[in-house]
Amino acid sequence: MSAEVQPIIETLGLVKNFGRTRALDGLNLSVAVGEVHGFLGPNGAGKSTTLRVLLGLIRATSGTARVFGLDPWADPVRTHRDIAYVSGDVSLWPNLSGGEIIDLITGLRGGADENLRRDLIQEFEFDPRSKARTYSKGNRQKVALIAAFARPARLYLLDEPSAGLDPVMDAVFRRQIRRVSRDGATVLLSSHILSEVEQLCDRVTIIRSGTAVETGTLADLRHLNRTHFRVTGLADPSRLAGLPGTHGISIDGAAVDFDADATDLGAVLAGISEPGISALTVAPPSLESLFLRHYSDIDSGNSGGVK
Amino acid sequence: MPGVLRLARFQARRDRATLPVWILGISLLGFATSNAVVIQFGDEPSQAAILTLAASNPAFLFVRGLPDGTGAGAVVFFQGFAFMAVLAALMSTFLVVRHTRADEELGRAELLGAVPLQRAASLVATFLLGGAANLLLSVFVAAGFVAAGLPVAGAVGAGAAVGAVGVFFAGLGAVVAQVLPSGRSANGAAAGLVGVAYLLRGVGDALGSPAADLLHVSSAWPSLLSPIGWGQRSRPFTSPDLVTLLVLLAAALGLAAGAVMLRRVRDVGASLVPQRGGRERAGVGGTSFVGLAWRLQRATVAGWCIGAAVLGAVAGALGPLVSQTVSSVAPLKELISRLVPGGQAGLIDVFVTALLGVAGVFAAAAGIQAVLRMRAEEAEGRAEFLLAAPKSRGRWLGANLLIAAVSTVLVSGTTGVSAAVGLGLSGSANGPAVSVVPAALAHVPAALVFLAAAAVVFAFAPRFSVLLGWGMLAAGLVLGEFGELFGLPVWLQDISPFRHSSAMPVESFDPAGALVLALVAAALAGMAAYSIRRRDLTT
Asked: Where are the beta strands (DSSP E) in A54-185?
């Protein structure tokens, strides 16, 4: 990564307490200029709290947060000048129409690009005339997305932005991300939809219980992950346990499933090559399994600390 | 039925903090009033004195109610019943709307709509809760009266009267909730109807005919249109009349049945007043904090202005009528010429002054409501959406305070103009009728202090801003209306900003007082704008 350029977002040891609950626990996050950065974590991991700190809506208990090199708490107005934000739970004014709300938000940000606004409304198949009271979750989300994308920004902070969108609208959303990314904008995309992150993001940070547990490019993370094997016809499946780097062996009739560490793939392959095998499936490491490894409490014990 | 009971228990659990505050607050007001009456007006001569004074002053009758003979119980009922009935009515309408229309609007009703129960089950459960709350209220009010030393039978009757008014308004609130599309509009309309009930009773009582002994007044017909008037007619301490309370309960049952019928035939979320479509683009000012604040507040302000216009019209048009009624009773006429400076003409001024004072409370309430809108915006997540824009929180707060201040001026101004028109038409003003406009506006500085104080609470302790915002107004009202009765020390009474407004036209304008109030309001507003930047947004 381009180390000499100052990152757009940088947090160091960010801590946020709400009463006795610790929402953020020493979070380090760095997002470089022009990248689409995935921010993955389960519900309650601290994703929304992080975004609120980055906007200066709430104040960090300790640690530092810098956006464009500015302290968002001390100078929210300057920080917000180049930010577009979609909050996690979009709440609208029930008695205003969607069109009015889009104009309000873009107006406060300095005015919409009229062509963009028109195209977005068309692409999202959005009816700007209805009162917000009548909108479904997906339509409320569209209001926030159109308001965010209708005026170019240098940084897009998106908190689970595709929640409630159908697959067609989700595709429209992804097109918009690619468009702003092509134009050089930086995107921080919080999500727990892995396929979305896999498709869109250059780099990923995984957050759990308020701490970043992994960060890197998708290739980096895959390298650290395990490969899934399904083998049919092994003479003595229990022998697998003796091989280095194998985990979660389960026997299913004549077939056996297990995971293998990337570093031990050679030994594992040698170990299973015997004349009797009739079928072999090897699945590439998916973010899914990575995700599950980090989030399931059962597995958390043996997920060796990764830096 | 077990399902309905379960729903009722669930609703009661949701209200476990709210309802006790209402019930204890109302009974405490009853206890404090009776305690003060027992201590200060323990003997018959002093009771007779205050009743005579009241009977001679229609403004007093308008605000309080009907004198109904001597005896501590009767005096307490006369002094306190109308206020307690209004509070019971508000408790009940808020309760019903909270569990019906507001729940539907927020989508919670849909979750319950999927369980195997009748469509109106939740509404019936709300009636059970409303009935139980008012029964409890009756018991507590009665207990408070008894504790202060009033006769038990009368205390029970008075408690029942307060509860019966509450039950009536639970039924009315349910109908309103069926008809209007949002929780906010239903609450506003229902509270407006409570105001109308108080007003009709007030008009009826102010126009009432005093008996020759000046210890009793019997009200005129408008009071019959008001449920609060019916509750008052039960006269629990003098000649108990249970029929009036049964009429209220029967009316409540009728309204409840109507609401259930409406609920059975309509879709979830649908209302009789339909939802209109919106505009495609924001209008002029639709892209600024001030424009948004005005847009959100204008319907509410219009509601307050209608109330204020009615109040002003009553003050303007009724004043002369009242003075005629009073002067037809010879002993009263004599008494007034002794007590009221300016006699007959002065009486009109006293009446107008009292009603303008009530309008001042309206103005403060409208302003507080506008300030508290910010809390709703924050708690429901919309402030986060707004404040992610490159605009400071101070500006957001300032825009809302500006609209709040404009609201108070509009409400006061409307009162004044409508009173001036009334006085002009009835041709009975002392001097130019227009002079009542500045008299109404004289209450604006005190109202501004309330809304600025509410803003300070919002900036420091957002979660308490609704409670404290309205609580401060209630405290100001109690200090102003009951402070002397309770014999509170003067410095305590002086905390209420209302005490420092010029009560025109009886008093002359006090520029120094108005200036001090305005400065206090400005200082509080500045403090709020400064501190709002220093806290987290909280839901």
From this structure: 62-67, 83-86, 155-159
